[in-house]
TrEMBL record:
PANTHER family: ABC TRANSPORTER PERMEASE PROTEIN MJ0413-RELATED (PTHR30151:SF0), ALKANE SULFONATE ABC TRANSPORTER-RELATED, MEMBRANE SUBUNIT (PTHR30151). The keyword Cell membrane applies. It comes from the Bacteria. This is Putative ABC transporter, permease protein.
Length: 250
């Protein structure tokens, strides 16, 4: 049976497409603002292009590397900061500087140091790492103090307490952080690609479409990015849910 929420989601999608079409009609030219149909047609053409598939693979790899580099380090430092307020105070200036620095400035500086291929990965790492650390820190601090006292009463070591108490406790915070980080990572990686234009990248496709005044193609590249980010998040949620069910069944 289809839930009522599904119908509300469908209504939202239809409304979005209708508003898009109205905007395109008001613009009066596909060169300025194409409607959903020209953009969809160009998107289907792109899907059949080896260039698009290679670009999608390049961007996906950069997102994956950004997550794989930032998530473990963010978790470790976040747990350490959650356990020790002095270490939290030590990290605080780093996080403040990262949060206050414009993403575009980070991209431009990183480009000078790392070149076009590695800049999107570094930028994604720098943006995602504080999110993961903050989530891990919040998870550690949310642990019930009575449970901490109980573990201390039984004389468990620090490493044993982290493994048996803190890591299970922060899991919901980490999963939430990973879900939001995936979307953030796609946005940052593609924004970096638009600026530094690595060889195989969705952002490079966007930049070239813009330079050639291929507005429907620009919309198609953008739609591909949005769909890729949504699919990544959905697959991660599915994997995390499946893992949780298997653990409960075991």
């Amino acid at each position: 049976m289809i839930s009522k929420n599904w119908w509300w989601s469908l209504a939202g999608i239809v409304s979005f497409i209708a508003l898009w079409e109205i905007g395109a009609l008001a613009a009066g030219s596909d060169l300025i603002f194409p409607g959903p149909l020209p953009a969809a047609r160009r998107f289907v053409e792109l899907l059949q292009s080896p260039r698009f598939l290679r670009a999608l693979g390049g961007s996906f790899l950069r997102v994956l590397l950004g997550i794989l580099l930032s998530a473990p380090l963010g978790m470790v430092l976040g747990i350490a900061a959650g356990l020790d307020k002095r270490f939290s105070a030590f990290l605080s200036p780093f996080f403040s500087v990262i949060a206050a620095t414009p993403v575009m400035a980070v991209i431009l500086i990183a480009f000078l140091v790392f070149g076009s291929e590695r800049t999107p990965v570094f930028t994604a790492f720098l943006m995602v790492f504080p999110v993961m650390a903050a989530n891990a820190m919040a998870g550690v601090r949310a642990v019930d103090p009575k449970l901490r006292e109980l573990f201390a009463l039984y004389g468990l070591s620090r490493s044993e307490t982290v493994r048996r108490l803190y890591i299970p406790a922060i899991k919901p915070f980490i999963l939430g952080g990973m879900r939001s980080s995936l979307s953030l990572c796609w946005k940052v990686v593609v924004a970096s690609e638009v600026l530094v234009q690595p060889l195989l990248a969705l952002g490079t496709g966007m930049q070239r479409a813009k330079a050639q005044f291929e507005t429907p193609e620009l919309f198609a590249w953008t739609a591909a990015t949005v769909i890729a980010a949504a699919l990544s998040e959905a697959l991660f949620t599915l994997a995390a849910t499946g893992s949780g069910k298997r653990r409960l069944a075991a």
